[in-house]
Amino acid sequence: MRKFKVVGKSVPKVDALALAQGKPLFTDDIELRGMLHAKILWSPHAHARIKNIDTSKAEALPGVHAVLCYKNVPRVIHTTAGQGWPEPSPYDIVMFDNKVRYVGDRVAAVAAETEEIAERALELIKVEYEPLPAVFDPERAMDKGAPVIHDEPDCKYIIPVFYDPKHNHCAHIDLEVGDFEQGIKEADFVVECKFKTHHEQHCSLEPHTCICYFDPAGRLIIRTSNQVPFHVRRIVAQCLQVPERMIRVIKPRIGGGFGGKQEVLIEEVCAMLAMLTKRPVRLAYTREEEFVSARVRHPMVMWAKTGVKKDGTITAIQLKVLSNAGAYGAHAMTVMNNTCAKALPLFRCKNIKWVADAVYTNLLPGGAYRGYGVTQAAFPMGVMMDEMAEAIGMDPVDFWKLNTIKEGETSPIFKALSETGRGVEMIVESCSLPECIDKGAEVFGWREKRERYKKQSKGPIKHGIGMCCLVQGGTVPLIDMASAYAKMNDDGSFNLLIGATDLGTGADTVLSQIFAETLDIPVEDVIVYPSDTDLTPFDKGAYASGTTYLSGMAVLRTAEKIREQILGVAADILGEPKEGLRIENKGVVSGKSGKRVEFSQIIKRALYGKDQFQIGATASEFSRLPPQSFAAHFAEVAVDTETGQVKVLSYVAAVDCGTAVNPKLAEGQAEGAILNGISYALTEEFIFDDRGRVLNPSFTDYKIFSAPDIPKITTILVPSYEPTGPYGAKTVGEVNINGPLPAISNAIYNAVGIRLYETPFTPERVLNALKEKRKSKIKQR
Amino acid sequence: MGTRILLNDFEYFEPETISDAITILAKYRKDAKLIAGGTDLLVDMKKGKIKPKYLVNLMKILDLRYITKDKRGLRIGATTTFREITASKLIKREYPLLFEAAEAMGTVQIRNMATIGGNICNAIPSAEIPPALVALDAVAKIAGRRGERSLPLEEFLMGIGKIALKSGELLTEVYARSPPPRSGTAFLKLSRTTADLATLNVAVRVTLEKNGACKEARVVVGGGVGPTLIRSKKAEALLKGKVLKEPLIEKAAQAASAQLKPRPTSIRASPLYKIEVCKVLVKRALLKALERTKAGGAR
Q1: Which CATH number is B249's domain given?
Q2: Which of A208, A523, B162, B166 is the most buried (most CB within 10 A)?
Q3: How, if at all, do strands A36-42 and A281-284 pair?
Q4: How confident is the model at residue B49 (pLDDT cuts 50, 70, 90)?
């Protein structure tokens, strides 16, 4: 493996100091002269037709400058999903409709001098609703007679895929590789279970925030906390029916996205209000709005059936998926597809059947959420693996190792399906998963603990351990593209302009490292400027774990082009052929003569001396395949059998993300994802009433883990080298969120012998399962 | 509620003496609202649940902020913060029950701001410190235009958001009885995360006779188990005069649990779960308290 100078080092984040100093870096940190404040009126009904809206009183309120509703805004059907074009999500939403489809759906918007006036104006808007029957249960959504949520005639996909909105059927795909039934026949044991996963909010510390204003040329500037600035430009132009050249999107620092900001959720309203009022307009969600009017992880009902031979061979896997898309279908099909495309290639099995549906219901719309369908599928698959290992009496570590994909192998799933439909044939060229399993098990003390916990202490607290392995393919192959531009300055420093979107992950730092490595310069010499649709070249944005891998390759190619230009100028200065020269420590050295010329001399010659030109280049890369990142997770829990409380005592994650460009940041990604996953597994939960209202829209009642709740998490980076990635790097953003559900469920089983098939694992659910177990034991006697 | 601003205008007062505060309260009566740490009130105001016309800040009254002891007990001024309670060596040493309850409340940031008086007067059923205080037979001291009066804290707390303060009155002090010799106490809280309101909390005290029998017991359950905390005199009566053994303790725990009346719509757990787990927590707390009487140290 190559030795690196900058790559593989935990250099500090390039924005760390400014963030620590509290500099005004975020969207909401600016105050523009004459800026208005926007507020949105939300639907109190889960499903209703709006018979009439009277906004006259609101408009008459002093300080109110505009009121928007379906009456005065053009109806442009589109999708809010911040995806590439043509979007693989249904066009089923308009800025304001005369129908509401969930509690929290958008009804009207106001721009006023102050937030206070805007809030008062909302109270003055009179809406006449005709409530309609609603459906909340995804298993009832396609029933005969179920209320049709999208009865508008213009909803559609713009790509050729299944869509049947008249039956609330938002997406459907099925596939079979090999022969599933035959595989079941060959099995010695067959396991079959039903699983359910729940809603989850992203809980970014910075809520959705957007400020729109006009520059002196009359172009609309959208300053927004968003993961996909280029898609924002395209979709806002679409909604406002203006040319894209009229819009510039700027992404400042972001306080977390996790997929929640891969969505054009507020930008088009803010922009429309700015257009109408000719004033700067600010629109920022409150925490309550984040909970009731943003996006969530798609809850799913899943049926898994697998067959296994006594020798440990998995003969058949079937996964049926029913995804609850909620009121709108943004990301519904692609998240659904990933329960197969990005989750099942992990398993060595010839016979795989997958049947998936996504349905509309009158609940919160699903969206992108870190893990993007793989989190949901990893739960049933991880538990099924544990059950199969138990059925044949094999230790889970050995069983996982036997049945997971290895370097040089392929999976029929790669070709059969991708996130968007069409698959790409590929061979896994980098995989250190076997080492991850070994190292993780060793550091965790798997075999020793497994032995120790066979004998439980007498008290009410029981201990157990569980494990699982994970995969997450990065990028959307053949669709995603990233690009970069860089130029050299007088002193030999560089401006690196990237379309890539750092949402707190450290992408700016990682990409600077890749650039610096290629040109053998320190990171300080890279002035990085990201995500501005006027100044930086296109990038698909921050999703599908793709930034390091894909934007990293674009940066690498850009730096390589610049290197050639530098060598060309140096050759001229030194009077030697370019071929004998190499870049070394901010200079160019001749291998033959040993002569050296500094970057600062080279650029001065290029800018002022002879045959002047700007040393600079742009380059792009598109995703040819989804690089596979792996992880092995181990959880140790204590279960209180009298209260049902589950506590994670320790958690070990051994992660294969290829080369970790910045190990500290990679560990941060892993640990953040694990904690997010543990919190989802144990405490995070939306509570709805029977009318579809969220009863706990605050951090008081929707509990995410905070500092004192964090268990001991150990991350081990186990390198591999991905030949298609920059310096061997793959991806690390998502894979680790997929582990806690199965690992903790398996650990609970190990501790107290109950299988939890439904999430989250709340004390009440655990206690009930324990009671059931006691009852069934009594019956058996 | 995120960035939402305060919805109503109000006039704001910062009296520096108790009598000034009383004068303002007497003048504006129901339109006035007292504020101390503001950790509950400001949230309610942002939500629009409370719209006071007059806001009276008590934090400038130095006479309301103290922790002292006298021969019979502990005096805590109403605007003493939770941080001050948990930092008090006196409380940690002699009233560990209060220390444990105070530390279980909120987060560091909230404990820095929130006051004991505010926590009591806001009267949310999940509050941590009131059960601990009731287990120590605490008394609420009240000042008003007609002078001072005292009320057992148990009677002071009347329901969700309901307290025995009359218009023009304010809570000035909480007085906790010093635990008699051979006492042991314990506080247990069940919650989803550390920084969560209690699903259930239990404060108990057992005081033994010289011969080891139970001289006196207090069993108090909080955490949304009824309109306010529940002191289980039934459980206490079962324990009194007996030698405390596990079966008896379980019976007492059962008795306490039978008195719970949780609301059917609780977000944190179902009523059935609370009743079930109450038995466990009361039992554990009593066993822990008993252990501590034997240890003689922590009470």
Answers
A1: 3.30.390.50
A2: A208
A3: parallel
A4: confident
